[in-house]
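Chain A, query sequence.
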Amino acid sequence: MLQKICPWCGKPVALMQVKKKPLKERYRWYELSQTVKVCPHCGEVVTLSSKWSNWMFAFMLPLFSIVWIDFLFGVALFDIPFVEAVCWFLVLVGIGGFYMFTKFEKP
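Chain A, predicted structure.
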């Protein structure tokens, strides 16, 4: 679908083609995964850029904040006209933007 360029070999790779392999060294206590993403063409380790994941989080923040305000204070902000539609639109824009604009980087 939308392909990213491998920073090692320069060949286009789709996100679904990226393979995983186990780490050779022991992972640290704060790392959540014991595997790394690997380019299927050259076999080198690639990571997704972190700045675009922050960008996606910024678009999803209104939905999370409205749900938490409703949960903690009992104020139903979704009852205001168009608030729910705007929040779901921002979520879709955030997910689509993350998928379209993220890049592979060397670790």
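Helices lie at 50-73, 83-101. The longest strand covers residues 19-22.
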